[in-house]
Structures are given as structure tokens and as C-alpha cells.
Task: structure prediction
Amino acid sequence: MAPDSRRWRAMLQALLLAAGFLVLVAVSVSSVILVNKAREQNSLLVHTVEVENQISSLLLEIRRAESATRAYQLTSAPRYLSEYETARDSVLPALEQLAKLVSDNPDQMAGIAKLNDLMRQRLADFARAIDSVKDNNVAASIDVLRDSASIETVQAITDVSRAMRVQEDRLFARRTANVDQTQILASTVTIAGSCMVIALGAVAVFLLRRSARVRDEAEAKLRDLAVTLETTVDERTADLREANDEIQRFAYIVSHDLRSPLVNIMGFTSELEELRGDIFRRIAALSRTAAFAPATPDDATAGAEPELEGGDKQLSDDFNESLGFIKSSIAKMDRLITAILNLTREGRRQFKPERIDVCALINGITKTVAHQAAEAEATIHVGALPNIASDRLALEQIFSNLIDNALKYLRDGVPGEISIEGRTKLGFAIFEIADNGRGIDPKDHQRIFDLFRRAGTQDKPGQGIGLAHVRALVRRLGGTMSVASELHKGSKFTITLPINWTEKQRDNKS
Result:
């Protein structure tokens, strides 16, 4: 080969090497720049996620404060006041944290300024409502939260937070697009460089995969946080809604306005009964006068029942019957109010968990109803039962009600068979109370757990409160209750309770 050719080839090789080196440097520099840019953009994505989570946390705290305020309005229970104070003290720090996160965004800072005023105004409403309850002015407290200004504040908070979320969603979409564009550009540079320098391509691919992994982890974290937050909110909302429904049901029924007129009716009924004697003694006296049979002074003043005839006697009987209906209704209403008051007092009782020999507890209950079982020709079989840690009085009330119902609703002419069995599964004790009694129509399975609702023939005494009370106790103990039954085929109640129930579990359940 001629020296000139070798010289030109050497020069070409040098040029190619230099070009390759330059390409290597350019690809390396480009890759580093693009990777750093991708990291920054991923950091912005994570920042957007943190802002949205902080907005959710802020709204959750203000809702917790509102829920605790409403619960305190209904019950005046100290623990709801404590929950309110905890939530109240968390609202402004959460708002300050949100302000720090969006401090680089003037539009979001404007929203923070609005939220600051609205949150303080809302907290002031809660404080006024709490103070009214402390002053025993529940009506004024309720009016504070029903006031149009308060409602407008809630709507304004919702609107501002929604607007901030929308802006963060736009930022998230734009930043995601930037990340995607950066990845596409980096891939192009990497592929071009890989054609000349395989090693460079391997490094670039590694960096790109690492960037993609960071982004995927950030998105997965966002999804997990969203699912967790939604689940937590749903569970707390469901628990609070159920607690509020029960509290309202009791509070509206058992009130001074219900008991006061009943006492007045009872008093006026007694006066009517006394007045009735005077009226019909006068009627009897007038009748004797009309019949030319003068009445003696003793007849007009004595408390003996006057002798009436004809229409007067029928009128007296109708009057007695009407008074009897009124007194019977008053007595029934009084029993209902007393039962509800006892039920609400029991609902406020502090449960104390202790280790309980359930078999001994059931045997004690069966001894107290032994006479009733003998009269009904019923046999009670108690099987092996697991021991649990729970509230003793609550368990006694649960099993006493179920055993008493089983004895009360046996079929006529059929020897009663009542069995109580138990087993354990996955940390829970399952108790089954079965009988061969009348049974319950499947369409009434839910009805029997409602207050004042009874199923089947109403030939036994009762107010329709027992099973509702039992289910409320089971729920407070962290368990569940169900029934399986058909008409004329007996019933089986299944109760599932934690084997080791604690006060912490009670607080989480309430």
C-alpha cells in the first residue's frame, strides 16, 4: 500500500477515532444531562403527589373535627370533645405544611390564603358550637352548624381545595408528559450512541431503566396512598354514620319532650277517674229524684260505685273502658321510654375486658331459667365453649336475651330443644344458639334487629328491643351477629367475637 494511502487511512482512523471519541463524549454528556433532568422531573412528580396528599390530609382533619363536634352535640361525651380538640389542633399545622409545599407556586399560595381564612372561620364555628353544648344549649349549637354562613364556608372550602387539586392534576399531567419526552429523547441518543459505542449504550440503558423505575415507584406509591386514604375514609365514615344513626335514634325518642306530656296525661287521667265517680254519683242521684226515690246523704257522698240503669249504665261502662285503654297505653308508653333509657345508659357504660369462662357463664344463665325451661318442657344443651377476654356483663346480657327468646318462642306441643355450641377460627370465637321453636320468616330476618319491630304472632310480652340491644352489644365488642331460620323449623343465631378483645379495639370500633 502506498505511503500516501497509509497516511490518509491513518488520518481517517484518527479522524474516526476522534469522531467516535467526540460522539462518546457527546452521548455521555447528553445522557448525564437527560438523566439529571429526568430526576428533577420525577422529583416534581413526587412533589405534586405530596401536595395532593397534604390537601387530602387537611380535608380529613377538618372533617374529623366536624364529625367530633356533631358527635359531641348529640352525646356530650368527653371522648368526642377530646377527638375534636385533637383534630382542631392538627388543622392549622396541616395547612402550614401545605403552604410550605406550594410556596413556589403563586396561584396555589393564593388558594392557601383563602383556605387559611376559611379554615379559621370553620374552626371558629366549631368552637362556638362546642361552647354552646358546654352551656347546655344544644339547639343553639346545632343552629351554628346549620347557619347559611357556615354552610357557605364548607362549600367554599370544598371549592378552593377542588381548584387546588385541579391545578395539581394539570401540573402532574404536564410533568408526566415532560418525563415521557425526556425519556424518548434519552432513548434516541442512547440508541444512536449504542451503534458506535456499545458500552455507552449499556450505561445509558441502565440510567434510563433506573429513571423509569423511580417513576414507577412514585406512581405505585401514589396509588397505594390513594387506596389507603380512600379505605380509611370509607371505614371511618361508615363507623361514624352508624354511631350517629343510633345516637340520634335514641336521643330524639328519649327526651324531655316525650316524658313530660306523658306525665301530664297520667295526672289528668287520674283526675278524670276521680271526676267520673262524682259525675255518675250525681247522675244516679238525679235518676232516683226523677223516679221519686230520694237519695240519702250517704249515697251522695260515699265513694261506693253508684247503681245505674239503662243508658246511664252503658255510658258508665264505656267511660270505664275508655279510661282503661288510656291507662293501658300510658303504661305501655312508660315501659317503652324506660326500656330505651336503660338501653342508652347501657350504651354509655364503659366496657372492661376480662378473662371469662364462657361455659361457666352459660351454665349460670341456664340455672336462672331452669324453672322457666321446666314449665316449657324444654332441654338446654351446653357444649364445649371457648374462653374469651371480653366484658362479662355484656356477654351475660347477650346470651340471656337469646336463651330467653328461645324459651319464649317454642312451638306449642313440641318438647323444646335448645343447644349452645362454640368453636374458634382465625382469632375469633364463634357461638351458635339453636332451637326447634317457631322459627322466623326469612323476610323478617332484618326486621327483628330493628328497634320496636317484632316478627310473627304477637302473643308474648315484649317491646321489640331485646335483639336490637344484643346486636348493639355484639358490635361494641368488635363482633358480628347473624340469624338463620325458617318458619316452624327453629332458629340459629350465630355470634362471632374476638377471642382477646381489648379497650383499644373498642376505641377503633366506636
The mean pLDDT is 77. The chain is about 75% helix and 10% strand. Residues 222 and 229 are 10 Å apart (CA to CA).
